[in-house]
Write a structure and sequence with these properties.
Helices cover 22% and strands 30% of the residues. The protein is an alpha+beta fold. The protein is globular.
Length: 343
């Protein structure tokens, strides 16, 4: 088993490492248990658990960061709590209370404080809250019992090249159905993306880009991330659709683009035949933070944005602002940062 002392933080990949401690709470007979830290990374559930048959599960992703002074801070965990509640309600699951969610995040990070990578390594502690339907049931119906768990793992950059342009392919497949579960962070959305993602990667692309399933004319998601573009007249434009996952990173960038970079911001339609309007483009999310998009291939046409080898100036500024806030180097908007009290 790896320990914090044996890890080369500067060469850390994006994978699972058992840190030894996780938070768990259990729902039964209509109420949640108090919950607490457990040491077994394995879950023991019934073979008749709803999650195994009908996919009743949702999850979240957020990070803890080590600051220059050695403190540990969280980036907007209350927004993750709200989103998980919405996802749970969409699947008729028993939501884990938002206040308890935030407290549990603090508790599990505090218990694994030695695993938070040092400042300057470019790494962070990834936090994965998970809610699953369990118990004994075989009919198509909501589960009567649930497990809420949070594990953590130290991670480096999601993409090996870090902040470098990546090339994407427009997929013929749909990520989610109209009026489906696209706006919820549920496992089925990601399972559906594995095959088209593999097809794109087999052709040399970083991942697939999905269009709106109804008309196939508008960009919705970039792999497992949200799309945004900087138009040639200085507008931060990002898609708006009921089938897009509302990225906490994206909404943070919208605010930073407007209030710190002085850009006009807009959520609206991004038509795939109007990519020429963008000077720069990117994908954003908790895992990848910001990935500059070098090019998008649509059929036989390849559209190049700022560059396939260099990062555009606006995306560089957005990246510096966001990561500067997350690592404590820049002041944060009110309510964005929570400090973890250490023993």
């Amino acid at each position: 088993m790896q320990t914090p002392e044996t890890i080369n933080w500067n060469e850390l990949g994006f994978g699972y490492i058992d840190t030894g401690k996780r938070f768990r709470a259990y729902y039964k007979d209509g109420q949640w248990s108090k919950g607490g830290i457990e040491t077994d990374r394995h879950l023991r559930i019934s073979e008749a658990s709803n999650v195994l048959h009908y996919g009743q599960t949702c999850f979240e992703g957020l990070k803890a960061y080590r600051t220059k002074s050695g403190e540990i801070q969280l980036f907007r965990p209350d927004e993750n709590a709200k989103r998980m509640r919405r996802s749970a309600e969409r699947l008729l699951m028993a939501p884990y209370p938002e206040e308890d969610f935030v407290r549990a995040v603090h508790e599990v990070v505090r218990a694994n404080a030695d695993w938070v990578p040092p400042y300057g390594s470019g790494a962070s502690l990834y936090i994965r809250p998970l809610l699953i339907g369990v118990g004994d049931g075989i009919g198509v119906a909501p589960a009567s019992e649930y497990i809420f768990t949070i594990f953590v793992t130290p991670v480096g950059a999601y993409f090996k090249k870090g902040l470098a342009p990546a090339n994407f392919l427009i997929s013929d497949y749909d990520r989610a159905a109209p009026k489906g579960t696209g706006a919820a962070k549920v496992a089925g959305n990601y399972a559906a993306s594995l095959y088209p993602g593999k097809l794109a990667k087999s052709q040399g692309y970083t991942d697939a880009i999905y269009l709106d399933p109804a008309t196939k004319t508008k960009i919705e998601e970039v792999g497992a991330a949200n799309f945004f573009g900087i138009t040639k007249d200085g507008v931060f434009l990002t898609p708006k659709s009921p089938s897009i996952l509302p990225s906490i990173t994206k909404y943070s960038l919208l605010e930073l683009a407007e209030k710190r970079l002085g850009l006009k911001v807009k959520e609206g339609d991004v038509y795939v035949d109007q990519l020429d309007q963008f000077a720069e483009a990117g994908a954003c999310g908790t895992a990848a933070v910001i990935t500059p998009i070098g090019s998008i291939t649509v059929g036989d046409t390849k559209h190049v944005f700022f560059s396939e080898t260099e990062v555009g100036p606006t995306i560089q500024r957005l990246y510096r602002e966001l990561t500067g806030i997350q690592y404590g180097d820049l002041p944060a908007p009110d309510g964005w940062i929570q400090k973890v009290d250490l023993p």
